[in-house]
Design brief:
By secondary structure, this protein is of the alpha/beta class. It has two domains: 238 residues, Type I PLP-dependent aspartate aminotransferase-like (Major domain) (Aspartate Aminotransferase, domain 2), CATH 3.40.640.10; 90 residues, Alpha-Beta Complex (Aspartate Aminotransferase, domain 1), CATH 3.90.1150. Helices cover 42% and strands 16% of the residues. The protein is built from 15 helices and eleven strands. A seven-stranded mixed sheet has the order 1-7-6-5-4-2-3, sandwiched between helices. A hairpin with a 4-residue loop joins strand 10 and strand 11. Helix 8 crosses helix 13. The longest helix is centred in the C-terminal third of the chain and has 23 residues. The two termini are 22 Å apart.
């Protein structure tokens, strides 16, 4: 039975596995000086623009930290939503590794706006106050909501007036692109985004993320930051080759579209069973809703998922590229049985 706890729980797409096997022949130069990494960089520039500078890393937290380290000094402040991954699930890594202060903003839907950020922009040139220098957003958010390109551009234009960088955590950016029907470039480079953490682990890959610098001054020192942050992989080809398969024939889009469709199917099925209160729109592959504790406890005996907010009896379901219609039906049948018992 499949887990609804996270798309990190899913397996590896067969095409990705085959790409690793194909890369496992002969010897290749280490630390990215191999043909697979060279080709993967070319493909990423095709996706994000010719000025994009990609740096492959192990995982999402590493990608986020390297991106932020490229943007800030220890006397700076990083602004994010209170529900952001860097605020909730990265064990204080932003402050530990950058030395900068993390400022968390309450939001209704996990999304930041210029209006929400404006009150935090004060104390300029005052040495007693951390200077705002980077804003972190995730696309999609931890709540499953998606920024439109217009919203991102508005945010970037606003921040650039204050010489603040915009960092996009794209751990689930494929799901956002599938929902919007937009390319990666249309959601990032064309909107004025400065740096991106691009992920594939949640969408069918084994491991590996890419820090994509969209400004030359941010790319300048990332190779040194990556090494110091212990994110430089010696056998880089086994990471970069996955991205070649991931982008080939739009595998990323097929996987993300399927995960999104399964989330819609699950939500509609839940709605048809009972009048549960959904906390957020289901725009990507994440569903957040409130359930009575007895139903949550009974469901957890048969299915794995996380309680998002215990005080609110709020749960989160996440669908994956390999979630099947049968997985959804099994869950819905169990939910029906629990309600009727």
């Amino acid at each position: 039975m499949k887990s609804f706890g996270s798309d990190n729980h899913s397996g590896i797409h067969p095409d990705i596995l085959r790409s690793i096997e194909m890369a496992n022949t002969e010897h290749a130069l280490a630390y990215g000086d191999d043909s697979f990494t060279t080709q993967a960089k070319i493909v990423i520039r095709q996706m994000f623009g010719e000025n994009a500078e990609p740096f492959f890393v192990f995982n999402g937290t590493g990608a986020n930290m390297i991106s932020l380290q490229a943007c800030v000094q220890s006397y700076h402040a990083i602004i994010s939503a209170k529900t952001a991954h860097i605020a909730v699930d990265e064990c204080g890594a932003p402050e530990f590794l950058t030395g900068a202060t993390l400022k968390e903003i309450d939001t209704s839907d996990g999304k930041l706006t210029p209006e929400l950020i404006q009150p935090w922009l004060h104390g300029w040139n005052f040495e007693h106050h951390s200077q705002p220098k980077a804003v972190y957003i995730s696309q999609c958010t931890e709540l499953g909501t998606v920024y439109t390109p217009e919203e991102i551009k508005l945010l970037a234009d606003f921040l650039h007036q204050y010489h603040i960088y915009l960092h996009v955590d794209g751990a689930r950016i494929a799901n956002a692109a599938a929902f919007l029907g937009k390319s990666f470039k249309e959601m990032t480079t064309d909107c004025g985004v400065d740096i991106v953490s691009f992920g594939g682990t949640k969408n069918g890959m084994l491991m590996g993320e890419v820090v994509i610098a969209l400004r030359p001054e941010l790319a300048e020192n990332i190779k040194y930051i990556r090494k110091q942050t212990t994110q430089l992989y010696s056998k880089m080809r086994f990471m970069s080759c996955q991205f070649l398969a991931y982008f080939h024939n739009d595998l990323w889009l097929k996987n993300a579209t399927h995960a999104n469709e399964m989330a819609q199917r699950l939500r509609k099925g839940i709605e048809s069973i009972s009048n549960f209160e959904f906390s957020q729109k289901t725009e990507a592959n994440i569903i957040i809703l409130k359930m009575p504790p007895k139903i949550i406890d009974a469901l957890m005996k048969k299915h794995f998922f996380y309680v998002w907010d215990e005080q609110q009896n709020e749960v989160r379901f996440v669908t994956s590229w390999d979630t099947t219609e049968n997985d959804i039906e099994l869950f819905l049948n169990d939910l029906k049985a629990i309600i009727l018992s």
